[in-house]
Amino acid sequence: MIVTHGTVAPHGTGCVLSIGNFDGAHRGHQAIFQRLVASARALGVPASILTFEPHPREFFSPGSAPARIARLRDKLERIAAAGIDRTHVARFDARFASLSAERFVEDILVRGFRVRSLLVGTDFRFGARRAGDIDMLRNAASAHGFALEALPEVNVDGERVSSSAVRSALQAGDFARTQALLGRPYTISGRVAHGKKVGRTLGFPTANIMLRREPAVSGIFVVEVEDTQAGWRAQGAANVGRRPTVNEVPVPLLEVHLLAPQPGQQNLYGRHLRVTFRKRIRAEEKYDGLEALRAAIASDVEQAKDYFRDHG
Q1: 293 CB contacts (<8 Å, ≥6 apart)?
Q2: CB of 221 within 8 A of CB of 240?
C-alpha cells in the first residue's frame, strides 16, 4: 500500500475513495474496506482512503478528545491488510478545518482525488462546522459526475459497531466483547525504548513502549507478546499507565514483563513488539514506597501465570 502525507495530490485517472478516522479498523470499517476494494477493482482504479492526523476531535478539543484505540502505524497496517491500494494521511490543522463543505468537495474530492466513486457511512459529516451531510454529497455527486454509496451500519449481537463501542468495551476490560467488535484480539504495538530501569531494580524487568497519546486502556493486564521481526511469542504481564509511585510520566507508558524470557528475549531495545491483551487484572495504583510496589507486581505476575495455566 502506498501511504502519503500532507497535501492531497491528484490520483491519476481517479479512485474509489472512503473518508474517516477509522480508529481501531473495527468490523464496521472492515465492511467499508471490503466494499471499497470490490468497487475499485470493478472500475479498474485504486481503492483509496483519506484519514487524518491528528484526529479532528484532538485538534478541536485536545483535553476531552476520546482515547486512541490504535496507533497510526497499527491503523495503517490494518488498512493495508484489507487490500487498500493508497492511504493519504491529511494533516488536520486550522487550514483544513476551515474548508467549507463546498470547497471540500471541489478541492479534495474532485480536484485532489479525482474521485470516481465515494463510499461513506450514512451519518458522514464534513467541512467547516460539519456543515456537509449525505444529502449534500448526493447533490455534489450528481453535479460532478461521481457515484456515491452510503453504507449501512454493522451490528454484532444487536450492538452497533463503532469506535465508541470499542472504547467502552476496552475501558470495562471486556476483551471478549472488544474482540467481537474488532473481529480480532486487541493489540498495541511499538518499538522498545530505554526506560529508568526501575522494573529491573525491583526484580521485574520490563520492555517499555512509548505511547505518545492517551490509549483506550489503562491498568494491569495479562498479555501475550510477539516480536514481529524475529517471530517469537511469549507470555507476559503489562502495565499501561503513568507509574504514579516512582518516575511518574505525563503520557501513559506500556511496560511489559515477560514471564519466562527465553534466550534472545532479554535485550529487546529497538525491537518492534505486538502486545495482545487477554485479561485486565486491576487498575494502576500509587503505593507507599518500592517494597509495596514490588509486592503488588509480584501478585500481578502470579495472576498472569495462573491465567496461562488455566488457558493453556
Answers
A1: 202, 245, 246, 287
A2: yes
- Per-residue pLDDT tens over the stretch 229-279: 888 999 999 999 887 777 777 778 899 999 987 777 677 888 899 999 999
* Residue 286 CB contacts under 8 Å (≥ 6 apart), including other chains: 244, 245
Segment 92-128, tens digit of pLDDT: 888 888 999 999 999 999 999 999 999 998 888 988 8
Domains observed in the chain: 2-160 (3.40.50.620), 186-310 (2.40.30.30)
Taking all residues of the chain, what is their mean pLDDT, rounded to a whole number?
90
Buried residues in 245-266 as b, exposed as e (16+ CB within 10 A) = beeeeeebbbbbbbbebeeebe
**In terms of residues, how long is the chain?**
312
Model-wide pTM > 0.85? yes
- Which pairs from 285-291 meet CB under 8 Å and 24+ separation? 285/244, 285/245, 286/244, 286/245, 287/245, 289/245, 290/201, 290/202, 290/245, 290/246
Range 123-127 contact pairs with CB under 8 angstroms and sequence separation of 24 or more = 124/19, 124/20, 124/150, 126/19, 126/101, 127/99, 127/100, 127/101, 127/102, 127/103
Summarised one tens digit per residue, pLDDT across range 2-31 is 999 987 777 778 999 999 999 999 999 999
Alpha-carbon distance of 49 to 155, in angstroms, equals 23
> Strand 15-19 and strand 47-53: pairing?
parallel
Q: Which residues of 275-307 are buried (b: 16+ CB within 10 A; e: fewer)?
A: bbbbebbeebeeeeeeeebbebbeebbeebeeb
